[in-house]
Amino acid sequence: MITNSLEEQENFSHQQVFGDLENALFTATEAAEYLEVSIATFRRYLKTQKITAESGIGSTHLYSLNSLREFKKALRAAIRHKSV
Predict the structure, then answer these.
(1) Do residues 26 and 60 touch, judged by C-beta distance below 8 A?
(2) pLDDT tens digit string along 31-46?
(3) 10 within domain boundaries
(4) How far is residue 69's CA from residue 83's CA, in Å, rounded to a whole number?
(5) What's the CA gap between 71 and 64, in Å, rounded?
(6) Domain around 74
């Protein structure tokens, strides 16, 4: 039954797939994975203040999806600009 309902709706909206992540906070490891960079590169971005933590719990810093999304767009734009 579940398979049939999934087959009926092949095209899901962005909101349906990622809506629950709208206010998500990521650890450094998760953020690096989202940005598709190594943890070393992510830490370099932190050191140069290209990325800042949204909040922290003890020694764990958390990064918002919205700020990571904006930074990822900027990275892609910079890469495209360099390749032109």
Answers:
(1) no
(2) 999 999 999 999 999 9
(3) no
(4) 21
(5) 11
(6) 23-83
